[in-house]
Design goal:
With 410 residues, the chain is α/β, with parallel strands linked by helices. Among the domains are: 76 residues, Dna Ligase, domain 1, CATH 3.30.1490; 154 residues, ATPase, nucleotide binding domain (Nucleotidyltransferase, domain 5), CATH 3.30.420. The protein contains eleven helices and 20 strands. The strands form five sheets. Strands 1, 2, 3, 4, 7, 12 and 20 form a seven-stranded mixed beta sheet that branches. It has a five-stranded mixed beta sheet with strand order 15-14-13-18-19, sandwiched between helices. Strands 8-11-9-10 form a four-stranded antiparallel beta sheet. Helix 1 crosses helix 3, helix 6 crosses helix 7 and helix 8 packs across helix 9. The protein is globular, with a radius of gyration of 22 Å.
């Protein structure tokens, strides 16, 4: 962790498919977090959330970090990095251990043993546990316990949500950060980080579905009773919408991206019939004038497909009725007009756009869905180190093993 002017500094690094974003935050003595620096650079070394070109990724990380450091007037040495990509899998697991503490009282060792036992599932050589997220504990026959420490009993049962990823994909993110001259304090699943910034504790208790619509991936996390019950990453995002526009309107990809940002609407019903847009042509031909509804008719099916796939996966997991508090959409693609309205139609639940909250300093600058993950990573890092219970049993072992692996490598 970097220290500047005797301050506690935390940096979140969102290694995304379309952009690399670095947020530097100052942990104030009152327990709050003040944003002091932000840096963004275009990302060219990732595809669908996975590093495919380390050199390009390293350059983009250096650029984003340098920009954030310049704004903050602080140099950072470590970051909390986000990880996503189609290789991520979330599974619910459970384990039972005998209480070994004095007078049959549940000790921290018993809890750690239970979490360790829940982790021991057959993943295969190429996969690694990234997070072990406790959902609920059972002491003897008493269920629904959040914190069993100090309770009397002979049998401790735990239900957890395990987040697993491909070892190589996680290592490539860490290696890219290391080559940019930084060390990784922690690896965090991106939708969990986004939830830190945009979802309230009340919503997590009641049941909330978070959908982070990024450029290369759509990241999903479902919370109930304050715990994570489902995580998933779809290898679909804003880039696919831009590609659909480029093909459908026969326009260059860069112009398709611009059309999406300026005139895109995810729900055709919200677009007036008389609205027109100028569409650049390829090969030096003259721009054409088209109805904005045609653009919307290309966008709507793709966004609808993303939401439908999320809904289908939740139904498959038997969790379709869990999100009592509704849905929160965040990430760059969620800025598009009509996204919350379309999500309401697909999920038949109230939907809101999620913006980062709970931070001070340059809070107005990061008040956009595109910064949700980076701000959430900084919040995750600060709460983890202040004993907020967020850095779970799975994190240390992964970080230690990866450090040892990298030490052997270099």
């Amino acid at each position: 962790m970097a220290r500047g002017r005797a301050r506690q500094v935390i940096a979140g690094l969102d290694v995304g498919t379309t952009k690399i974003c670095c947020v530097i935050a100052d942990a104030s003595s009152g327990g709050g977090l003040d944003i002091v620096g932000i840096g963004v650079s275009p990302s060219r070394g990732l595809r669908k959330g996975v590093v495919v070109n380390i050199d390009s990724t390293v350059e983009a990380i250096k650029q984003a970090v340098a920009e954030a450091e310049q704004m903050a007037g602080i140099e950072i040495a470590t970051v909390v990095a986000g990880v996503a990509g189609g290789h991520i899998r979330g599974i619910n697991s459970r384990a039972v251990v005998a209480v070994s503490g004095k007078h049959r009282e549940v000790s921290r060792t018993d809890i750690d043993r239970a979490l360790e036992a829940a982790k021991t599932i057959n993943l295969g050589q190429d996969r690694e546990v990234i997070h072990v997220l406790p959902q609920t504990f059972v002491v003897d026959d008493q269920d629904g316990i959040k914190e069993p420490l100090g309770m009397s009993g002979v049998r401790l049962e735990v239900e957890v949500h395990l987040v697993t990823g491909a070892v190589t994909s996680v290592q490539n993110v860490i290696r890219s950060v290391n080559r940019a001259g930084l060390s990784v304090q922690d690896i965090v699943l991106e939708p969990l980080a986004s939830a830190e910034a945009v979802v309230s504790a009340e919503e997590k208790e009641l049941g909330i579905l978070l959908i982070d619509l990024g450029g290369g991936t759509t990241d999903v996390a479902l919370f109930r009773d304050g715990a994570v019950w489902y995580t998933g990453i779809l290898p679909l995002g804003g880039d696919h919408i831009s590609n659909d526009i480029a093909v459908g309107l026969r326009t260059p990809t860069g112009d398709a991206e611009e059309l999406k940002k300026r005139y895109g609407c995810a729900l055709t019903a919200l677009v007036r019939e008389d609205e027109t847009i100028d569409v650049p042509s390829v090969g030096g031909r003259k721009p054409r004038q088209l109805s904005r509804q045609i653009l919307s008719e290309i966008i709507q099916p793709r966004v609808e497909e993303i939401f439908t796939l999320v809904a289908r996966d939740l139904t498959r997991a038997g969790l379709q009725d869990v999100a009592s508090a509704g849905v929160v959409v965040t990430g760059g693609t969620s800025i598009m007009h009509g996204v919350p309205e379309l999500a309401e139609q697909v999920f038949d639940l109230p939907v809101r756009r999620g913006l980062p909250t709970g931070v001070g300093g340059l809070a107005d600058v990061v008040h956009s869905p595109i910064y949700s993950t980076a701000v959430g990573l900084a919040l995750y890092g600060s709460r983890g180190q202040t004993g907020g219970g967020l850095l779970d049993a799975g994190d240390g072992s992964l970080a230690d093993r990866l450090r040892a692996w990298l030490a052997r490598l270099f």
